[in-house]
Write a structure and sequence with these properties.
By secondary structure, this protein is mainly alpha-helical. It is 68% helix and 6% strand.
Length: 628
Amino acid sequence: MAMAATAGRASRGMTREEKKVIFASSLGTVFEWYDFYLYGALAAAIGSTFFNSYPEATRNIFTLLVFAAGFLVRPFGALVFGRIGDLVGRKYTFLVTIMIMGLSTFLVGLLPGSASWGIAAPIILIALRMLQGLALGGEYGGAATYVAEHAPDDRRGFYTSWIQTTATLGLFLSLVVILIVQNSLSKEDFEAWGWRVPFLLSAILLGISVWIRLSLAESPTFQRMKDEGKGSKAPLTEAFGQWKNAKIAILALFGLTAGQAVVWYNGQFYALFFLQNVLKVDGQSVNIMIAIALALGTIFFVVFGWLSDKIGRKPIIMAGLALAIVTTFPLFKALTWAANPALATAQQNTRATITAAPGDCKFQFNPTGARKPLTSCDIATDFLAKSSVPYDIVTTAAPGTAASVKIGTATVASYDAVAAADKATSSDAAFKKAINIALRDGGYPLKRAAAKVADQKLDAFVAANPELKLDAAAIRAGDKTTVAADRAVKDKLLTADEAAAVPEITVYSVPAAGAFAMFADPEQVNWAKVIGVLFILVIYVTMVYGPIAAILVEMFPTRIRYTGMSLPYHIGNGWFGGLLPATVFALSAYSGDIYYGLWYPVVIAAMSLIIGTIFVRDTLGTDLHAKT
């Protein structure tokens, strides 16, 4: 009856105060997501600033660990701030969350690097990242609850859908700001100090957000409940210690937010990762493509929020899950052919075969990037997976035998990192070089950079690269540069011992003799098709995400609403969604198929579709004022 009453009621216009509520909540949340995305986008520059005393691989691991910490603490932020929000009030709590998030982000822009502050710099960085994650865990629930409790029952989906645009707009804003700053500075200046500018600019957004939020009143629904003395004295116990409420949280997690999260992360974040790291499209082009797709698709958060006030929240979310389940594999395959047709053709024509001893191949789940492959099979599968090469594994080698990789007519022996000991670095270089040559001969789009070689090492370099048919005398007779010895050491052209005896080093640049790199030819990238596929993925995101705030706030009573909705939302998005890139890569590496990992979002979405369809009740027409 409530649904019928709501559907038949004449909708009134949005008041000035309601517009202010939505704007303040949405602006603050845009700002918080903007801050959160900055760290991920600028991870390389942050790593070189705060972990510069470590080798590049170790530096990247530490940077990813710090980023992961922000995701892992989000559910704890939901508990902490959800409890405060249900005890003290919505306005006060999400004012605190934005202050914590904003100041933490601004301080990252000011924090000296490890070259100045030593170990204290990365420790403070970790603390700031955890504070950001905690604040974000409390921000979304507060903003969604606050707007929902101001909204008319028959327009709650439309009102709260504006908040749903915030994550996408935050990502879009961060990409735009980074692109502007990058194009305004030289590469050297951006890496040295320019990366700090987007963090420092957040102070402007923080000031505007706090100023607007200070002028807001408390949620009328919460204030009425508090005046009537019906508030919860123990929100955590009541929300999760009583089965009638804990059951709602469980259904919200497995029937809604887990599926919503994987569709969202797959459509926005993994698509970006897939284009850049799997299909090898250059980063700037990928950012522009994603930005265009987001600009075209963001309005549909509001469209589907509005539609959910007409036909219900659940049908739209379930339809989005179903469409994602059915079309994820075809869309990502279409993305491959549109973005890198040369790679797609090579994958179709040339597969690798790894022959390994039983037990030598492990499942490479690596959520933080901290795990390094050690066995000969794992080293081979890790490199082939990162090179986007499909492969089959045959476990017929004798125990204790190193794995081998067959590509076309070439067979390359892998190595065991532990057994190689101090020769692991040279073994790795030789293995990767041989694999890359075989891949290039097999039609994969590989280019080889110029090699800078010190005069002292030129003869050895020529001997080590017979396939290039180089002439040392001809190279010495050609162009050359002279660099200081300390610069040669810094550029890893010589070791410190080798450079100790001479003040200057003669360096030659040998074309197409350096490191191999898989690439997407810019002339072959079909921008229209790529953006079209990305747009479809964004539409799925808007379908599952646009109505999610409305259905979550309507599932829980006012006295525990902030706490109850925040935890399943952040477990779903922080853990099911946050672990998606690592899980997808692990599954793909295990199977030797760049698409196989997509079973993770498909299966999780199918789980939510089944549970949501059977057990989750649509909440359209819920009277929040009566549901205390």
